[in-house]
Amino acid sequence: MGVVFGVLGPVTAWDGSGDVVALKGPRHRAVLARLIVARGRVVPVTRLVDDLWPAPPSDAVGAVRTFVAALRRALEPERPPRAPSRLLVTEGPGYALRADADGVDAWRFEQVVGAAARPPEELVPRLDEALGWWRGPAYADFADEDWARAERSRLMELRLRAVELRAEAKLALELAADAVPDLDAHAAEHPWREEAWRLLALALYRSGRQGDALAVLRQARTLLVEQLGIDPGPALRRLEDDILHQADRLEPGQDAASRVWVQATEAYDRTVASSARARLESTVGILRNLAVTGGGGLEAAREQRMAAIAAAEELGDAELTARVIGAYDVPAIWTRSDDPAQAAQVVAAAERTLAALTAGGHDAVRARLLATVALESRGARTGRAREAAGEAERIARGLDDPALLAFTLNGVFMQTFQRAGLAPERDAIGAELVELSARHGLASYEVLGHLVRLQARSAIADFAGAGEHAAAAERLAERYERPLVGVFTGWFRALRLAASDHVPAEEVEAAYRDAIARMEGSGMPGFETGLPALAELSLRIRDGRPAQTDEHTDWGPYLPWARSLVLLAEGRRGEAAAALRKVPDPARDLLFEAMWCLAARAAIAVDDREAMERARDALAPAAGELAGAGSGLLTFGPVSRYLDDLNATLR
Q1: Which residues are within 8 A (CB) of 420 and not within 5 positions of it... i.e. 6 or more apart?
Q2: What is the mean pLDDT of residues 427-439?
Q3: Is the same domain home to 21 and 156?
Q4: What sign does the dihedral 361-363-365-369 (CA atoms) show?
Q5: Hey, which residues does 6 pair with through a beta bridge?
């Protein structure tokens, strides 16, 4: 491992052997710290001058260059003379630090806290280690600097959350007494954090100290009322009432829901024969519920789903197989499959089952199979998936089954990407899903409808409307425990900032870092892969900068459309032109317009008229949209701007 930087305390650097790197004077460290705060973004020399001196001396620019040269010698002592630095680079009007993703302790800390969905037995040691990286307040030697203030506050909030996450994990592992000392100190140091008091009181109660738990809650009430003039929030009030009544739910694993689950599963095992076919259908019901929990639950559901289908097919009962396949009606918002190979297997099984069903009397089952074909064929370029979606919807509209109609509408949504500019159609589907689901209590599909509308309204730059749907989806997610919703709404909020001309780049980048951190452990590789790279590229295009050229960038499935821009950024125009000639049409998905805009940008740069004409024809129907914003995640700017540039170049 190369140089590692520490900002969770005084700003420090260690070399590959773990020895401290001599960073010279305080202004050398200030330059380094300022570049770390920028997270790889170029900081102009003029900005560094303003940040380093309240009243800059006449030779300030030269002094900054001297500091940078000294830092380069210290950080890369084996770099040959006059060879360009690969770590502290010169780019445009300033400098940037190209540290690895795990090369700064604060960045690693973010990753650990962002992976809070891990099992508690894994989370506790990871958080113990991460909290041990703190050597004092973040950027301790620059506490009074304006440029460090926001980052210091953000990291401190992250640290407090990490302490509370560790306590929650210990409580889940029935280590309440072990959690008490840290929580006691945490609440004393941060008396306005109600979550600190709640966790401390709960840990005390579970340690057999009911009186101490009540005393802590009353202490919290006194502080809040007397110092801030506010009453404790609902979580503290509910906990106090539960402790007074010794509610069962305060004990780990002893809440009413847990008891019912244990009793019901025991009864099922006693009364339903192990060979009964009903077990397969019951299993799929569990998998369906497991999938919406996200993370490990989604991955486990995906792993077991095909096994359940295969078991049903082995029995040779087409109707049973149809029910097993169709019962997995998990709402889907992202248009790229998490497991394309398995999706193809599911489609093949659904098609076999459709062919095996006897004629008549199976309309609802057939509609579910057809909707499954439409959903699992997301991004396909064949007409079969669209045909299946249309037939499923037609059948469902003739039946009095709201849940079936919602499922088929999800399939129709997945097949509304045959060309650019179809955001209004998807908005109409989302509106119907919201209305239908709210009327019939279909919470998961109501969430889906709001997310569909969030995407569609973002496509046409109606961020106020999209924000209302994001808030509605989050309220439902909290009520019905749908943790994956926050992944999508977190990305939307970053998109909303990026689409504004008035939000500083640092704030937008911070929002995307938070959104990316929330993806870890979500169990959605089809969603995760390549998106961080695209988000960075979108911000570079927003700022008029070239594409990132780091060879370790994971572009995932978007590499063919990004490759030419990367080569252009490296000055390899001929190779960029050759790569562009090999670019296929993009997948029919939520980033269809975005990929065409990247192709258009490259085509103009290398003067490839054929590619320009293809891009112009593909993008024309989306002239009124923001490129990529229909994903609800990121944008490359107005499609009309690309069309204007294409038309001007082609004249």
Answers
A1: 592, 593, 596, 618, 619, 620, 621, 622, 625, 639
A2: 97
A3: yes
A4: positive
A5: 12
Of 150 and 255, the structure prediction assigns the larger pLDDT to 150
Please give the structure tokens belonging to residue 363: 């309309």
H-assigned helices in 315-442: 318-326, 340-356, 363-376, 383-397, 402-414, 423-440
Residues 622, 491, single domain; the answer is: no
Tokens of 260: 């019912």
H or E element: which one contains 451?
helix 443-459
What is the maximum alpha-carbon separation in the chain?
89
Cβ-based neighbour number of residue 496 at 10 Å: 21
In a domain, 518, yes or no: no
- The residue range of the domain holding 382 is 270-513
Q: CB under 8 Å to 80, separation ≥6 — which residues?
A: none
Q: How many residues does the chain have?
A: 651
Nearest-10 Cα torsion for 376, 382, 385, 388: -160
Q: What is the mean pLDDT of residues 143-148?
A: 90
Say if 520 falls within a structural domain: no
Asked, for residue 247, whether it belongs to a domain, the answer is: yes
- Residue with the bigger pLDDT between 359 and 447: it is 447
For the domain that residue 131 is a member of, what is the CATH number? 1.10.10.10
Q: Are residues 504 and 448 in the same domain?
A: yes
518 confidence band (pLDDT: 50, 70, 90): confident
Both tokens of residue 164?
């509370």
Per-position DSSP letters for 530-550, written without gaps between them = THHHHHHHHHHHHTT-PPP--
Alpha helices in 481-591 (DSSP H): 485-498, 505-519, 525-528, 531-542, 559-569, 573-581
Helices marked H in 115-145: 120-131
pTM over cut 0.85? no
Residue type, 441: G
With contact defined as beta carbons under 8 Å apart, do 221 and 241 qualify?
A: no
Residue 519 located in a structural domain: no
Report pLDDT for 25: 87
* Sign, CA torsion 332/333/334/336: positive
**Structural domain count of the chain:** 4
* Mean residue pLDDT across the chain: 91
> Does residue 330 register a pLDDT over 70?
yes
- Rounded to the nearest 5 degrees, what angle is found at the Cα of 514, between the Cα atoms of 599 and 568? 25
Q: What pLDDT, on the 0 to 100 scale, is given for residue 295?
A: 67
Average pLDDT of the segment spanning 354-376: 91
Q: What are phi and psi of 98, to 5 degrees?
A: -100, 60
How does pLDDT run across 306-317, given as a tens digit for each residue?
A: 999 999 999 999
Residues 264 and 278 in one domain: no
In three-state secondary structure terms, 460 is coil
- Domain boundary pick from 269, 300, 328: 269
Of 324 and 83, the structure prediction assigns the larger pLDDT to 324
Tokens of 135: 């050597």
CA distance linking residue 531 with residue 537, whole number of Å: 10
Q: Are residues 322 and 428 in the same domain?
A: yes
One domain, residues 457 and 595 = no
Do 182 and 167 share a domain, yes or no? no
Q: Taking 80 as the threshold, does the pLDDT of residue 294 lie above it?
A: no
**What is the spatial order of strands in the sheet that 88-91 belongs to?**
43-44, 94-97, 88-91
Q: Are 113 and 61 in contact (CB under 8 A)?
A: no
**Counts of helices then strands in the chain (DSSP H, E):** 30, 5
Q: Clarify whether residues 477 and 503 are in a common domain.
A: yes
Q: How far apart are the first and last CA of the chain?
A: 52
Q: Residue 268: its pLDDT value, please? A: 81
Which of 149, 171, 193 is the C-terminal boundary of a domain? 171
Instruction: Determine the Cα–Cα distance for residues 190 and 177; give it in Å rounded to an integer.
Output: 20
